[in-house]
UniProtKB/TrEMBL annotation:
InterPro entries linked to this entry: Bact_solute-bd_prot1, SBP
Domain of life, source organism: Bacteria
A family per Pfam: SBP_bac_8
Keyword entries, A-Z: Signal, Transport
Lipoprotein recorded as keyword: no
Protein name (record): Sugar ABC transporter substrate-binding protein
GO cellular-component term (any): cell envelope
Source lineage: Bacteria, Thermotogati, Deinococcota, Deinococci, Thermales
Family note: Belongs to the bacterial solute-binding protein 1 family.
Species this protein is from: Thermus brockianus
Subcellular location: Cell envelope
Length: 386
């Protein structure tokens, strides 16, 4: 009886000592983050990470905003890189200490910064790339285009009465990636520059392909339809984050081989970086923040980073994992873009300006509104957003 009581006392003390930390995420129910949380919980007893899948990035934003209003938000969350400036602007995040992990790539770690302060621990970085239908390009003896003139020519040659050469999703990420690649920006001094020279140049470039009958356009709310267009050979070239291909492969059997190539770049162009970061919300306690650091050290281990890179096509933060992955074809291609990476949001709360921008893109590419007029109206609306 005494032994039973002692055991109960020990278990009670252990339960009191353990810090339970809810973490909302978008990486899939039963996916990699939930698996790593379970592994972390089994390897130590101080912290218990309790992950909860809440949907995609946009659903996360809606649910998190509501939870912050009613006091039910978790202390930790995994969010997309573009949410960092928005959450910082709203005063919803706490800055994080630099992780004491010698093997981390300092350049990739800096992608978790906003205005020079670290607010997010990157799990991995997704690279903007060009996807292409290998069979279609081989049939027309085309190579993946290396510049924007070649991209336009390839789109024209791949087009027919029943298909378009290039697929473009008129969402803020896709357009920002194009603007960056062509050397422009959608922000200036922390404010919107939706009607700037870079935005107008990129939109007119898309419009020129559209006028040639070589552009398949889908709105920001038609992402599933956009994927279906590509898989049903309604289009043969598409821009997107490197992590998109493994996500599609996990849900459907591909009817043809999909190739990955570097996104065409102009001389001053940059490659859009997106990806996942772990953040501590403003109400997280000091102990919960220490739990986040411990979980990040677990996630940053070389073997875990390499597995994540191979499975999700993220650039790993671990330098040793980069060295190993660089010996593989996909890893070598994606790592070759590292020196020209820039956060797709341009260190600005670009997601706040997404509604007027995406509406402008659709009005131009699916309607008859002149590009300059649509972008000026989008800029005027964005300036009114607090």
């Amino acid at each position: 009886m005494v032994r039973v009581l002692l055991l109960l006392l020990v278990l009670a003390a252990w339960a009191r000592a353990q810090v339970v930390i809810p973490l909302w995420h978008t990486l899939g129910e039963g996916g990699v983050l939930e698996g790593e949380a379970q592994s972390f919980n089994q390897t130590q007893s101080r912290y218990r990470i309790e992950p909860r899948f809440v949907g995609d990035y946009r659903e996360m934003g809606v649910l998190l905003a509501a939870a912050l209003r009613n006091g039910t938000a978790p202390p930790l969350a995994q969010v997309e890189l573009g949410f960092l400036p928005v959450l910082v602007k709203e005063g919803l995040l706490q800055p994080l200490p630099a992780p004491q992990i010698p093997d981390l790539d300092p350049d990739l770690l800096r992608l978790g910064e906003v205005k020079g302060r670290l607010y997010g621990y990157p799990l991995g970085i997704s690279v903007a790339v060009l996807f292409y239908n290998q069979d279609a390009l081989q049939a027309r003896r085309l190579s993946p285009p290396k510049d924007f003139a070649q991209l336009k020519t390839a789109a024209q040659r791949l087009s027919s009465r029943s298909a378009k050469g290039l697929l473009f999703s008129a969402d803020v990420y896709s357009f920002a990636s194009l603007v960056l690649a062509q050397g422009g920006t959608l922000s200036q001094g922390g404010g919107p520059a939706l009607n700037g020279e870079g935005a107008l140049k990129s939109l007119e470039y898309l419009l020129s392909i559209h006028r040639e009958g070589a552009l398949q356009v889908r709105s920001a709310t038609e992402l599933i339809s956009a994927g279906a267009d590509f898989l049903r050979t309604k289009a043969f070239l598409a821009m997107g984050p490197s992590s998109l291909l493994p996500a599609v492969k996990s849900r459907t059997q591909l009817p043809f081989a999909i190739g990955i190539a570097p996104l065409p770049l102009e001389a001053q162009g940059r490659v859009a970086a997106s990806g996942s970061v772990l953040v501590a919300l403003r109400h997280a306690s000091a102990e919960e923040r220490r739990g986040l650091e411990a979980f990040y050290r677990h996630m940053a281990e070389t073997s875990r980073q390499l597995a994540l890179a191979r499975g999700v096509f993220y650039l790993p933060l671990s330098l040793k994992a980069q060295e190993a992955w660089g010996k593989e074809e996909v890893g070598r291609l994606l790592l070759s873009q590292k020196d020209r990476l820039a956060p797709w949001h341009g260190d600005s709360p670009l997601l706040l300006w997404a509604p007027p921008l995406e509406e402008a893109l659709e009005r131009v590419l699916k309607g008859q509104t002149p590009a300059k007029k649509a972008l000026e109206e989008a800029q005027a609306r964005a300036l009114k957003i607090p």
